[in-house]
């Protein structure tokens, strides 16, 4: 009996071609629950898609994830997987090769989200130039969120821990379901008119349906047009909403929003103490310098007082008087000594003294001193004065020696 014998590779290749040629299997979408979801280090995602009766293996390669997966897929998610069914020839195992994965029932929501995001981004509402800076020391903080639930309690707890003196104003808003967007807008507008330092708008995490109120255009515009800086705190770290993009600051969680909005009072108080000490030291130094300057001015002013000036001049006058008196005495003493010396010399030259020693003083008839015989002629009258009188005689002879 003749029969054809095929290799395993031939059979798997044949089946692979059958799958490839099948129109339905080449392009289909199927829904189910995710299980055994594993993120490979290469970037590929391997998971199983199941329903109540059956399961099928699936894979999304890393190159498809950027455009085909817009959320963090995990076990238990209800999804719609679009792609094709093929066989992995090496093992003979068929599986779904996913090109796009959406959460079941929310594909249109993602499309609306992306459309609005693109529209608002093109209008400039996400631009950094419109972002208002958060205040450094906010003391009045508004909160737009549900009055119950973890979000408001986390914000209050963190705020009071960081700054026990902060004033929190809560606007209890509906954060999901029909009419939620309108109450969020009312809360933003109400708190914006109260002159608060900053407003936190948010809620805890959830599905895209739960968070959808924060993807509404009216909420985005209310945040954009508010005068008060707004922190968006919607969902968890991996969840983004339109409110996150348009807000002045995005926080991953309500707790982080409270950290961003509040300063640490103890650090602030210590800073004030340091500045106070520095200011006091500077003030003491300034006062010390001013006191020294005033003292110098007092000394200068005291030196310029009229009575002090007069007194100083009196002392100077006394000093000059004493110096002048000393100079006069010294000069008189010198003149006196010179006078005594001159007097002694004059006394030695005195005619009276000469006469007293036996000398005579000869003059002509007119009283003119005769020093030489040439001044007289025979017959002239001359007078000779001696110690005890005068002798008048007539010249009878002249002898020249």
In short:
With 401 residues, the chain is an alpha/beta fold. The chain has three domains: 98 residues, OB fold (Dihydrolipoamide Acetyltransferase, E2P); 140 residues, Cobalamin-binding domain (Rossmann fold, 3-Layer(aba) Sandwich), CATH 3.40.50.280; 43 residues, no CATH class.
| Overall average pLDDT | 87
Rg, rounded, reads: 64 Å
Strand runs, count: 13
Biggest beta sheet attributes: 5 strands, mixed, barrel
| Percent in strands | 15-25%
CATH architecture of the largest domain: 3-Layer(aba) Sandwich
Shape: rod-shaped
What would CATH call the homologous superfamily of the largest domain?
Cobalamin-binding domain
Task: Pick out the low-confidence regions.
Answer: none
Number of separate domains: 3
- SS element count, helices: 12
Question: What strand line-up does the widest sheet have?
Answer: 1-2-3-5-4
| CATH class categorisation of the largest domain | Alpha Beta
Q: How far do the termini sit from each other?
A: 210 Å
- What is the H/E order? HHEEEHEEHEHEHEHEHEHHHHEEE
CATH topology of the largest domain: Rossmann fold
The secondary structure category is: alpha/beta
Q: Give the helix proportion (percent range).
A: 40-55%
Please give a structural write-up.
By secondary structure, the chain is α/β, with parallel strands linked by helices. It has 3 domains: 8-105, OB fold (Dihydrolipoamide Acetyltransferase, E2P), CATH 2.40.50; 112-126 and 139-263, 3-Layer(aba) Sandwich (Rossmann fold); 352-394, no CATH class. It has helices at 8-21, 23-26, 62-68, 107-123, 150-162, 180-192, 217-225, 242-246, 254-261, 265-303, 306-348, 351-356, and strands at residues 28-39, 45-50, 55-60, 78-88, 93-103, 140-145, 167-172, 198-203, 230-234, 249-250, 361-364, 381-386, 389-394. The strands form 3 sheets. It has a 5-stranded mixed beta barrel. A 5-stranded parallel sheet has the order 7-6-8-9-10, sandwiched between helices. A 3-stranded antiparallel sheet has the order 11-12-13. A hairpin with a 5-residue loop joins β1 and β2 (45-50). The longest helix has 43 residues, at 306-348. It is rod-shaped, with a radius of gyration of 64 Å.
